[in-house]
Amino acid sequence: MLTGTSASAVCVGSCGTAGANGDITASPLGGTYDYVTTAGGVSGAGSLGVDTETNGSINTTGSFAADAGSVLSFYFNYVTSDGSGFADYGWSQLQTVSGNAVATLFTARTTPSGDTVPGFGLPGLLATLTPGSTPIQIGTGGGGGPVWSGLGGDSGRCFDTGCGYTGWIRADYTIAAAGNYRLAFGVTNWSDTQFASGLAYDGVIVDGNPVPGVPEPGTWAMLIAGFGLVGAAARRRRTAIA
User: Which residue numbers delimit the Ice-binding protein C-terminal domain (predicted)?
Assistant: First the structure.
């Protein structure tokens, strides 16, 4: 049985809760789901620090206890209005209570063709996925862009080939050692801050028990002055395909 420890849920950037809207349905569990998005994200948030990331968001659950051999499960759906050479990505990571990485469970990255998971140039896949194939699905917006409120003003837009969404995918991961943990979900823009991407997720459980809740929706870190300065490359204007 899960027991609480000292760490509370934390959001940095733009995190929210939504129901089915546009191209993004409810998860197989129904009802609402949580998400992180680069729309309203902050500089440096949601990044794994492996590339030229710019702005994004990260949502970390409250802490929970798990036994060796406990199974962590959840659903996720990566959504991106970007494409071509702008390889935004989302991810989930099991962490210690203090925030140190234990295992990066999956990465999903904008790509013109093939599977989005694992993201190219990013940590490999550690979770078992159902379904195992993760190609991007074309949205109903202009140029195949995904229609979804989580993308803010980029809902229904598409920069180039690779925009769309994965659909809901189940991830299962067996925790190797007993301990207290947290689960983080992140998403980041790459190279610039245009054409938002987001990561929806739902049903986080360990051995069938829900983990402590995520933060209330909001954009807490946007209240902090000085975020969002990402240089000249991030200010370049790009145009969506029709």
Answer: 214-237
* pLDDT for 233 beyond 50: no
Query: Helices (H), strands (E): how many in the chain?
Result: 0, 15
The whole-angstrom separation of Cα 190 and Cα 121 is 12
Instruction: List domains and CATH numbers for the chain.
Output: 10-235 (2.60.120)
Enter the pTM of the model: 0.88
Contact call for residues 52 and 193 (beta carbons, < 8 A)? no
Task: Say how far apart CA 110 and CA 91 lie, in whole Å.
Answer: 12
Query: Chain-wide mean pLDDT for the chain?
Result: 89
Q: How far is CA 224 from CA 42, 112, 135, 234, in A?
A: 10, 35, 37, 20
Residues 6+ apart with CB under 8 A from 175: 66, 67, 68, 69, 70, 71, 72, 94, 181, 206
**Position 91, amino acid:** W
